[in-house]
Amino acid sequence: MFGGSRMVAGGGCGVVDALEPSVKDKLLKNFCDKELISYHQIFEGSIFGIPSELAKLDKTKIRYAWFKCRLSTNEEIWKIFPTSWHVDYLLCI
């Protein structure tokens, strides 16, 4: 499904690797921030200044299940990055 795109992105990752490490760091931070927007909206957001019920500590299992599902759903897309970049790890921290 993503074969051609993966090759192009993989080549782009090679270029990024050849640049200063700060370029890769900024790219990965931007990517992770964008990937986690919905997480923040659901679990850390507030509605009219009232904290979300899902933001509470006792909802950890729901947060974990959501994130685990997200990881498996987007695994194919994230494979465009070299494994040495540890994108899945960066999304979790």
UniProtKB/TrEMBL annotation:
InterPro entries for the chain: Vps53, Vps53_N
UniProt domain Vps53 N-terminal: residue ranges: 11-92
Pfam families: Vps53_N
PANTHER family (alphabetical): VACUOLAR PROTEIN SORTING-ASSOCIATED PROTEIN 53 HOMOLOG, VACUOLAR SORTING PROTEIN 53
Name of this chain's protein: Vacuolar protein sorting-associated protein 53 A
Provenance organism: Tanacetum coccineum
